[in-house]
Amino acid sequence: MNAEEIKKNAEFLIATLPGRKIEGSEKITVRYKNLVNFARIYRKTDTKYIGSEEDGIVAIRSWANVYTIKTLYKLVLGEKFQQGGIERPFLLNTNKMLHAGNIYDWEGCVDVKNGDKLTGTASWGEFWFVEKNKMLFGNLHAKIKNQNDELVCNVTSRIGIRPGGY
Q: Using CB atoms within 10 A as the burial measure, which of 24, 87, 98, 163 is most buried?
């Protein structure tokens, strides 16, 4: 892909994606064993996180990485849209995508518990192009809710895409 095509694709995505809902959703069933094992990785000793299954433990906040990755990246990999009358995937080359960080917002959220069935949906945020290295950056906004339609977490993930990936 030449520099002109790269810039054209970047400009198209910057104009098209912000505010657009990503089609579909991702579902995750929360399991006691996974919550406890994850908490132990972080050396948590509080029974709130590693107690018996009957104690009704909750997930540590960093467990959000589990549902963030599955929700955002699986949805992104399936994203398609029209460009110039032709359907194309969001990512032209998945090897060119980089994870550039997450921002978690817990305001108004409930704890994740064993047995919860989480559903993640996402939409596109702001995109921008860095001319010097032809990198495209963007934000993805996800809402994760449990089976009771209660908010579990709001996540903003930043991605970077190297030339040839968009």
A: 163
